[in-house]
Amino acid sequence: MTRGWWRRNAVALGVIAVLAPATAVAISFTAWRDLPTEHRIAVETGEAVPYGGAEIGPISARFDDVPGTPRASRVVAVRLEVDPEDEGFTCAVMLVESAAPHRRWGPSTTSLDRPYDPDRVTYCDSEHTSPYTVEHDFLVPDDAVGPFELELSGGAAREVLRLAVSP
Fold first, then answer.
1. Domain range for residue 102?
2. Which of 6, 48, 107, 167 is the most exposed, having the fewest neighbouring CB atoms within 10 Å of its CB?
3. How far apart are CA 6 and CA 112, in angstroms?
4. Is the full-model pTM beyond 0.85?
């Protein structure tokens, strides 16, 4: 490269020197702003909390004896009351171990051999506009003893809600 090349491309190099960092900052800010905020809320037994345009709670959990559960594992059955307040409410749930090693489990309701019950709701149903109970089963290893948190995300809220549960 010669000195003439730098002169011919000085304007383009100056634009790149300004726009590259500005683009990186704009992308980082947008990604940071879109991250859901996380709220951990301890809900007393029998209480509810507003979330995503719905009233969530009370919540309960128990270790459940389900036939066909794989060896060295057990089922944490969680019941969650949802009042969508005349609007559809959708959510995704995870069971999170509160103490180390902070493992996470998704619902295992469809992979367990529970008898079919047409009245049992196993997901946040956007078509329900009146209060209902959601029942989730989580398959966890034998050494997972709790306490746990039920993590809800989605709905109208851009935040993650964590409800403490103890089977």
1. 38-165
2. 6
3. 68
4. no
